[in-house]
Amino acid sequence: MLSLYEAAQLSFHGEEILQEAYSFTLTQLTESLTTKLSPFLSGLVHHSLGQSLRKGMPRLESRYYISFYQEDPSHDERLLTFAKLDFNMLQKLHQKEVSNVTKWWVKDLNVSTNFPFARDRIVEACFWIVGVYYEPQYFLARRILMKVIAISSIIDDVYDAYATIDEIEIFTNAIERWDISALIDLPEYMKLCYKALLDIFEETEQELRNQGKENFVKYAKNEVKRLVQAYRTESRWFHHNHTPTAEEYMEVATMSCGFALLTTVSFLGMEDTAEEFLIWATSDPKIIVAASTISRIMDDIAGSEFEHERGHVVSSLDCYMKQYNSSKENGIKELLKMVESSWKDINEECLNPTQVPMKFLMRVVNLARMMDVLYKEQDSYTHSGGILKDYINTLLVHKVPIQIS
């Protein structure tokens, strides 16, 4: 029954049988929690109803399953020990990577002093990227993407929480130029941010030069430009007190969520990447649009009250409520339907023939998964205590106890 429930998460448009299977198994499994299940099954069912495998963070779900499997009376002790050893060994690699990026954040960027307005979330950002790919062979890809998501977070806060509209225009123009000489036109705090951005991409070009792929970085640079152009549009909306239609908003906001940039950069560090994969990623393919839609809507729903407090542009929820004269409750209900529809788009695109190998498509899937993990209950990235702290401790801090008999 639980396996059927998990399989039903892979439904796509027009697939009524899997939708019926989902509704049936959801009801049956929920009712089963009131019966006397074994500790193993009870824990597994309760966890799966809260976080399905399809939408969960793969390595975090592996860690949870180790604990559940240990409660299974029929477990294989050797297999269990091997799984624990594998988890602990890979965790050491992730810890070293996070430590190195954190040193760069604290010592090189000196974020707390140079960007006091920015969210200091470097460990959370690293956790996010481990969700995109945890495999040991992607150590270079993780390092590149950790730094890009970190600087993107600062830039996001520049636009959302600190810069004036005039400064935003100047900063956007500078990024569009992508030239160190543009520093002269920027305020001091923007100079530091701008130089850090250029340095990260220069470092990435150097990393890829040995593979003869340094020219691939131009695709990521272009996505940065598209990202800040979207930020600028949203800032203009806010400055002019403009509420766009839901459709107009989503066209811009699916770019400002940053998934197009993160997907493109995630491909750069993968050893067998090819230029055609980057051309595909930057052409707004359906799967990336779907993941971006999930990102934007879940972020907007989870963080709408906080964003209003700090004077942010309207959200998808605001636009929908105004356009359709809807209540907040009904607006959320309709937007969540769009999220489920986007997941079906992702499932379909993973089945459709494409020139991009599945290992690359999975970076997009994993980015969407992280939104379910981090934003399902609240904006856990901005408000990083509570459940996100528990996730980080589970994945990156606490090793799995191993009893040697």
TrEMBL record:
Tell me where in this chain the Terpene synthase N-terminal domain is found. Answer: 1-49
Which ranges carry the Terpene synthase metal-binding domain? 107-345
GO terms for molecular function, please?
Answer: magnesium ion binding; terpene synthase activity
Q: Which SUPFAM superfamilies match?
A: Terpenoid cyclases/Protein prenyltransferases, Terpenoid synthases
Gene3D superfamilies according to UniProt:
Farnesyl Diphosphate Synthase, Terpene synthase, N-terminal domain
Question: What keywords are assigned to this protein?
Answer: Lyase, Magnesium, Metal-binding
Q: Which residues cross the membrane?
A: none
The cofactor required is: Mg(2+)
- What are its GO biological-process terms? diterpenoid biosynthetic process
Q: Which Pfam families match?
A: Terpene_synth (PF01397), Terpene_synth_C (PF03936)
List the PANTHER family hit by this protein, alphabetically.
Answer: (-)-GERMACRENE D SYNTHASE, OS04G0344100 PROTEIN-RELATED
Name of the protein described by the UniProt record: Terpene synthase metal-binding domain-containing protein
